[in-house]
Amino acid sequence: MSNDMLPVVKRLPVVGIGADGWSGLDPLRRERIQNAEVIIGGRRHLAMLPDTVHAERRIWPSPLRSGLPEFLEQYRGRRLLVLASGDPMFFGIGTMLIELIGPDELEILPGPSALSLACARIGWPVQDVDVVSVVGRDLHRVAGHLVPDRKVLVLSADASTPQHVAAMVNDAGFGASKMTVLADLGSPSETVVYSPAHSWNHPPGSDLNVVAIDCVARDQSLIATAVAGRDDALFHNDGQLTKRDLRASALARLAPMPGQLLWDVGAGAGSVAIEWMRADRRCRAIAIESQPARADRIRENARVHGVPGLSVMEGSAPGALAGLEPPDAVFIGGGATTEGVLPACWDALRPGGRLVVHGVTLETERLLLEQFAQHGGELTRMNVEQAEALGTFTAWKPARPIIQWFSTKAAIAESSRHTQQENS
After folding, report:
1. Is 122 exposed, middle or buried (0-12, 13-18, 19+ CB in 10 A)?
2. In this structure, are residues 277 and 110 in contact, taking their beta carbons and an 8 Å threshold?
3. pLDDT tens digits, residue range 400-412?
4. What is the per-residue pLDDT for 9?
5. Pick from 111, 112, 93, 108: which is nearest to 14 by CA?
6. 223's torsion region: left (phi>0), alpha (psi -120 to 50) or beta?
7. Which helix (H) or strand (E) holds 370?
8. What are the tens digits of pLDDT across the range 82-105?
9. Largest CA distance in the chain
10. Which of 7, 5, 39 is nearest to 22 (CA)?
């Protein structure tokens, strides 16, 4: 949104209002509302204002994000105010307005958030709580936060959310977790109900609710930890799976960072992409897989492991890579010898990006030796052996050796920059 489309007011007030309505507002927020000529908000929030507020009241446009710039332009030159729910910066309209207008043009005046109110009611330290919103988002995102002793707060989509959360938590092996549903927080009609997830039988209540989960695992041996290298048994697969020891090694070098994008080329079961995204909720990944059955399996694995936002691209590399957003990291677990795959991945990689390739055949080993000679990095041969029964005794059973090549564009880009500086 360009500056000439902004309202004339130097700073647009964004006022948070709670379920207690006008009575819960402090003098500053009331003064901003009384001074406004036009107030934009949801129907429920606008209805909370008393008749003594004479401003024109307008409901948000639909669709919101694409319609907002033109909507605001209608009121350029007038004293405009945005009315939001609770804390506008907590999964609220404030973050969208900052993206569109910029922080310098906004005056954020928050009320208590659903998180702070819920934690106050049940005695949870706010800083220790994981928050996940399922408002307009896949419910399976909650599964990514289920870890023993973790405290999770779910922002519900509607009154049916608690029942669906209870079923999913139970299916994930966390049925003993205590679930608390807090509805209409801050209002005279506020309610709190709780029970273990496995026996949840409360009828649906208010649409305005949050679900607090105090995570308890049923079987510690099957727990999917938050650390890379999850148990192979937790991934549905047809044998095309990067095994946990090798996966942990690959992810240590891929180095997931918030907001960065991974290409998982020849993804198989999608385990590398899934663990990349689990490293941080802002990590993104595209799994490229040529076989439709495996692509479907990747999607199911992503939901089970709590990262339903994993993008799955059906097709064969390198053709399927065309037009994709350039990655910050690339993992090639199979198919590296296919003509054009390695050059396409390396060329697409952003400066500072990391590339990890695994191979088991002599042909792949020969190719990786060439890449190592050309681009440097690390070339590692890994042998994994596991103890298995041999008659009445126990012996080591080796898996096929894996050749791992890892390199980053950072050193090459930096070297090129220094060369250019020396020649200038």
Report:
1. middle
2. no
3. 999 999 999 874 4
4. 43
5. 108
6. beta
7. helix 362-375
8. 999 999 999 999 999 999 888 999
9. 87
10. 39
Length of the chain: 424
Alpha-carbon distance 28 to 50, whole Å? 16
Cβ contact 166:204 at 8 Å = no
Contact 8, 76 (CB under 8 A): yes
Per-residue pLDDT at 249: 96
* CB of 43 closer than 8 Å to CB of 138: no
Average pLDDT in the 242-271 region?
Answer: 96
Instruction: Find how far residue 88's CA is from the centre of its chain.
Output: 20
Q: How far apart are CA 126 and CA 180, in angstroms?
A: 16
What's the chain's average pLDDT?
91
| DSSP letters for 92-134 | SHHHHHHHHH-GGGEEEE----HHHHHHHHHT--GGGEEEEE-
Could you please report the per-residue DSSP string of 257-318?
-TT-EEEEET-TT-HHHHHHHHT-TT-EEEEEES-HHHHHHHHHHHHHTT-TT-EEEES-TT
What are the structural domains, with CATH classification, of the chain?
8-112 (3.40.1010.10), 115-221 (3.30.950.10), 225-419 (3.40.50.150)
Encode pLDDT of 294-325 as tens digits: 999 999 999 999 999 999 999 999 999 999 99
Per DSSP bridges, beta strands 12-17 and 80-85 are: parallel
Q: How buried is residue 107: exposed, middle or buried, by Cβ count under 10 Å (0-12/13-18/19+)?
A: middle
Lowest mean pLDDT among 174-183, 197-206, 213-222, 367-376: 213-222
